[in-house]
Amino acid sequence: MAIPPRLAPLLDQFEFARERLVNRLNGPVTDSGDGTGVPVGPITDAEFLWEPVEGCWSVRRREDGPGHRATVLAGTGDWGRDAAPYPHPEPAPFTTIAWRLSHLSEMFTLRTDHTAGGHRLTRDDFRSHGGAAAAVADFERAAGAWHTMLLSLDDGVLDKIGYSSYPHGSDPEDPLLEVIWWMNQELLHHGAEIALLRDLYRARGAGV
């Protein structure tokens, strides 16, 4: 199927951002921004769960309970992501790489289901991971499913309001094209945050 012209630039942006984030997490090189390859090692579990300040929100073992100012560990399985019902705590808690990557994977998983799947998955169905390798693999799977869904779209659905029924956003009131744009922004800004946290972890205590 031909890519609708309106979708093509968003698809290119998504593919670039996804590849850049995966390379930033896995190595052995990542794009410096000007096309120059920069060596980078794969993220470790310690870095993945690193809490650079007190009171971070993260991904935690369910048996340990939620972190500071969180009231629940969202999802299913042995690990959950710190969360609280609206209104969220103010100021917003600082979040770890684990939290941010889980958040991205959950959004891609649920929005794919609520756009081209069974329209039934909830946050209670999502499984976070306490290990970096499993979490990165899950992100690759979730983002890959979203990408496959995008490739299946024709131009006629891009203006359909509520084509995505994702319940944790404004999707039911938005044209699908705006939802796709929003997901790119989520990937871009959380990807940048994760990259910065990797830099800070590498530089901690090094006097740089």
SSE diagram, text form:
Elements: H1 8-26, E1 29-31, E2 37-39, H2 45-48, E3 59-61, E4 72-74, E5 79-83, H3 97-116, H4 132-151, H5 176-203
Antiparallel strand pairs: 1-2, 3-5, 4-5
Helix pairs in contact: 1-4, 1-5, 3-4, 3-5
Q: What does the average pLDDT come to?
A: 95
Major β-sheet, in short?
3 strands, antiparallel
Report the total helices. 5
Report the top-level CATH class. Answer: Mainly Alpha
- End-to-end Cα distance, whole Å, is 50 Å
Extract low-pLDDT stretches. none
Structural class: mainly alpha
What is the element string, with H for helices and E for strands?
A: HEEHEEEHHH
Strand order, largest beta sheet = 3-5-4
Output the radius of gyration: 18 Å
Tell me the number of structural domains.
1
* CATH topology tier name: Four Helix Bundle (Hemerythrin (Met), subunit A)
| Portion in strands | 5-15%
Shape: globular
Kindly state the number of beta strands.
5
Helix content: 40-55%
Provide the CATH architecture: Up-down Bundle
